[in-house]
């Protein structure tokens, strides 16, 4: 380890301590407030030991894109490794990120409807960007199947049955582009998956993720507020209960 | 078969800032104007649910639908150009107001040095400061000549500022409205800059500090600092844009006809003059010919150049021979800067597009370049534009990009870090240019415009030097960790950088040096005008809209003059 790295490592540990000290409380309090607001005191998602997501009764949550529970759970487990539950608050699953992604894949995002998708398709240089003939929906479908086959190859188990460390190994291989995919690189799939996970954690809850605005609450982002004109000059940090466009 | 419509005095192609200004000035002067906007109507009433980061900032709801038209790109002539399939490096627009709807509103004037860059650089450093591959040229008019037009644009838009920049060219008037509010971050920047003997001032802003009525009688409201500005429209009508200023002004004359979903595909030419344009109604698919005594191209940089190319007007630039001016001098901007990580928590989510402090001590020729291997520089600024949670996940160096450490760090630093950034000037190079793609076509069968562009040695040297200056300020501000921007290598069209594309249809003093004269009138076709940042002979170290607005007023004056006198205006 280089000296610089060593310093930043110590720095990191120090700041993490500060972060935990201030934000754990914020996250917890915020979380409770949120649940009360929505009148669902104990309504949390249940995860069994295989990561199966049990849907709430009467919830608008349902799969629009993925056709079977196994594939949906692979997506859910992968996003949870990218954005895990911790002492700050919920992870991707708790924030309903898998539903957000599922719904996005079923619409414009999944079909790349605002993007130039005409051939001929050439590989190009990395500086020329996305050149795949595949839509995001096709990439996710293949990517999830590849996560599964990679788990079977390496551990003779379903991706949903391996432990977190093993999932991380596979995701890292995807990130590095080491997994063979057709019409797209595994690195590109991973980039999409990571971006979609953060989008699901932090977009307005009207899209089905960021459940109870807990993503915003963890981060200290107040969401949709009409004005900060009375607070913008204040030297103190402002803790503001978040607000969704859906509350209109 | 195209339907030929009744003729008018002026037709504008595109209705954003430039088209709106030309339409307002010409219709006020009694000229009958048709504005052809390829996108849809939009305005303040359409932005009631604008505080939606995902829809507008991530999925680009106000931006161009690339399934119909995009550009193709390569870094150099040896590569095969491929289409830009998704938006990334810059955000093209469509719809009323153009990119002036979802801009931040920073409204600078380029420096006197910029307009005479060739003359002044040669004078200070000799003719060999940059190699022969750099196509440096004067603009064909001086700052002082353009000053009245800067003044006019600032009054139309009601720009808020403080007149404290010692490097500014001469100003005939103070800013129409006072500066925006100070915040803890900005005060800290100001204190640090002054300690370093630099000259901070408030960013001139089109997010107004107070309600303002412009000389045309249009009211612009006061900014509420909601933090949703860049990539968004303003739900308060507090960010100056064409749809709340010049467009209503033009419509009030009763002789401005604004048509939506009207995509121009050809400039029609007969002999030495243009006769009008051909456009497609994108809803019905019908084709129309709109005859006009004068045609004004008022779309974005790429489309102005493309329309001239597909209509075979002017000689296209050939980098192999150096001949031709159309497509030459494409420039961009490079983004030096430094990130700072703090222990204190800041209200980073509050802000406005142009809320910031900046300084010009390292911009233009405001510092000595004798011992430096580049010219020009950049405006260095700390802006508080409103950090949003999807787009803003800052982490100190060596943090993994996902997993629990990433989550902890990005959440912690979301409100404890920010950047000092510079708008690095971009000098024209003989290998950076626009042309037509030979393979890829748009939805109307026209070739895509092709961009050949890479960063140059000048860019890399400037970037490194200015990043170090930004880091100096960040250190003085007391950041616990300061990270200067990584050195640049090759231009990459994927990550967002800036929507400050320039060149391709440059203005010039002599016909052999540019596409249009200093009234933005085409050198070869007297009743054709083209105004956009494409007219910039190079890109300065500032946001372009202030200078673009000034040129649009200059152009409008030219069109009105031409309608009376005809002939070349220079």
Q: Mind explaining what this structure looks like?
A:
The complex is a heterodimer of chains A (248) and B (570). By secondary structure, chain A is mostly helical. Chain A has one domain (3-117, 126-247). Helix content of chain A is 47%, strand content 2%. Chain A has helices spanning 3-37, 69-82, 97-105, 108-111, 136-155, 164-175, 186-202, 214-219, and strands at residues 46-47, 53-54. Chain A has a two-stranded antiparallel ribbon. In chain A, strand 1 and strand 2 form a beta hairpin. Chain B has a single domain, classed as FAD/NAD(P)-binding domain (3-Layer(bba) Sandwich), CATH 3.50.50. Chain B has helices at residues 17-28, 53-58, 112-115, 117-125, 143-157, 184-195, 246-252, 301-310, 404-414, 457-476, 545-565, and strands spanning 3-4, 8-13, 33-36, 71-74, 82-83, 201-202, 212-213, 219-220, 256-259, 262-270, 273-281, 287-297, 337-341, 356-359, 378-383, 417-424, 433-441, 447-452, 481-484, 528-530. In chain B, strands 1, 2, 3, 9, 10, 11, 12 and 20 form an eight-stranded mixed sheet that branches. A six-stranded antiparallel sheet of chain B has the order 6-14-15-16-13-19. Chain B has a four-stranded mixed sheet with strand order 5-4-18-17, with helices on one face. Chain B is globular and about 65 Å long. Chain B starts with a strand and ends in a 5-residue tail after the last helix. The interface between A and B is large, with 72 and 71 residues.
């Amino acid at each position: 380890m280089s000296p610089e790295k060593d310093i930043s490592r110590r720095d990191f540990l120090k700041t993490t301590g500060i972060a935990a000290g201030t934000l754990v409380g914020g996250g917890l309090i915020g979380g409770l407030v949120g649940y009360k607001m929505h009148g669902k005191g104990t309504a949390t998602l249940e995860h069994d030991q295989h990561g199966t997501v049990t849907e709430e009764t009467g919830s608008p949550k349902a799969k629009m894109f993925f056709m079977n529970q196994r594939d949906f759970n692979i997506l859910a487990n992968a996003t949870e490794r990218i954005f895990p539950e911790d002492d700050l608050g919920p992870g991707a699953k708790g924030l309903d990120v898998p539903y957000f992604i599922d719904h996005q894949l079923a619409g414009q995002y999944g079909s790349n409807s605002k993007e130039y998708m005409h051939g001929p398709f050439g590989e190009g240089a990395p500086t020329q960007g996305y050149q795949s003939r595949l839509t995001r929906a096709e990439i996710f479908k293949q990517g999830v199947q590849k996560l599964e086959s990679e788990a079977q190859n390496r551990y003779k188990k379903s991706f949903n049955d391996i432990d977190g460390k093993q999932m991380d190994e596979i995701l890292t291989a995807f990130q590095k582009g080491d997994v063979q995919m057709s019409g797209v690189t595994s690195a590109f799939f991973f980039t999409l998956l990571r971006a979609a996970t953060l989008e699901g954690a932090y977009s307005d809850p009207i899209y089905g993720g960021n459940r109870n605005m807990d993503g915003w609450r963890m981060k200290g982002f107040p969401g949709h507020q009409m004005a900060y004109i009375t607070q913008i000059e204040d030297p103190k940090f402002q803790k503001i209960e978040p607000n969704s466009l859906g509350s209109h | 078969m195209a339907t030929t419509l009744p003729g008018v005095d002026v037709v504008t192609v595109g209705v954003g800032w430039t088209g709106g200004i030309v339409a307002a000035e010409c219709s006020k002067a009694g000229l009958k104007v048709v504005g052809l906007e390829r996108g849809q109507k939009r305005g303040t009433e359409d932005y009631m649910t604008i505080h939606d980061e995902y829809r507008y900032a991530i999925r680009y709801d106000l931006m161009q639908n690339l399934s119909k038209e995009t550009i193709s790109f390569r870094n150099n002539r040896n590569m095969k150009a491929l289409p830009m399939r998704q938006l990334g490096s810059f955000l093209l627009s469509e719809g009323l107001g153009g990119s002036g709807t979802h801009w931040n509103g920073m409204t600078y004037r380029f420096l006197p040095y910029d307009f005479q860059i060739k003359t002044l650089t040669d004078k200070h450093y000799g003719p060999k400061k940059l190699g022969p591959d750099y196509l440096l040229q004067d603009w064909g008019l001086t700052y002082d000549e353009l000053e009245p037009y800067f003044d006019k644009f600032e009054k139309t838009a009601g720009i808020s500022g403080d007149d404290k920049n010692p490097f500014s060219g001469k100003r005939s008037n103070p800013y129409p409205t006072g500066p925006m509010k100070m915040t803890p971050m900005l005060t800290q920047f100001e204190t640090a800059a002054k300690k370093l003997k630099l000259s901070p001032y408030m960013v001139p802003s089109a997010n107004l500090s107070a309600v303002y009525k412009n000389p045309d009688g249009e009211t612009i409201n006061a900014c509420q600092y909601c933090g949703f500005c860049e990539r968004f429209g303003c739900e308060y009508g507090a960010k100056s844009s064409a749809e709340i200023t010049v467009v209503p002004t033009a419509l009030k004359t009763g002789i401005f006809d604004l048509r939506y979903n009207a995509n121009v595909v050809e400039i029609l030419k007969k002999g030495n003059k243009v006769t009008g344009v051909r456009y497609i109604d994108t809803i019905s698919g019908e084709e129309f010919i709109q005859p006009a005594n004068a045609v004004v191209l008022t779309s974005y940089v790429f489309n102005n150049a493309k329309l001239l190319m597909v209509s075979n007007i002017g000689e296209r630039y050939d980098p192999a021979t150096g001949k031709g001016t159309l497509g030459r001098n494409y420039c961009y901007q490079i983004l030096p800067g430094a990130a700072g990580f703090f222990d204190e928590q800041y209200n980073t989510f509050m802000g406005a597009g142009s809320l910031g402090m900046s300084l010009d001590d390292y911009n233009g020729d405001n510092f000595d370049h004798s011992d430096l291997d580049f010219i020009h520089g950049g405006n260095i600024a700390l802006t508080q534009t409103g950090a949003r949670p999807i787009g803003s996940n800052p982490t100190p160096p060596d943090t993994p990009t996902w997993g629990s450490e990433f989550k902890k760090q990005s959440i912690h630093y979301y409100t404890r870090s920010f950047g000092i950034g510079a708008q690095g000037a971009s000098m024209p190079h003989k290998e950076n240019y626009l042309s037509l793609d030979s393979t890829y076509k748009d939805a109307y069968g026209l070739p895509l415009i092709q961009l050949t562009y890479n960063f140059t040695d000048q860019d890399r040297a400037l970037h490194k030097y200015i990043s170090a200056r930004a880091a100096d300020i960040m250190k003085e501000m007391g950041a616990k960790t300061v990270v200067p921007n990584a050195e640049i290598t090759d231009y990459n069209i994927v990550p967002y950088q800036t929507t400050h594309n320039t060149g391709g249809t440059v203005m010039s003093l002599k016909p052999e040096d540019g596409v249009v004269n200093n009234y933005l009138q085409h050198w070869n076709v007297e009743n054709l005008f083209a105004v956009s940042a494409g007219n910039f002979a190079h890109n300065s170290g500032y946001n372009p809209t202030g200078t673009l607005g000034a040129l649009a007023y200059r152009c409008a004056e030219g069109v009105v003059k031409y309608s009376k006198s005809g002939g070349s205006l220079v």
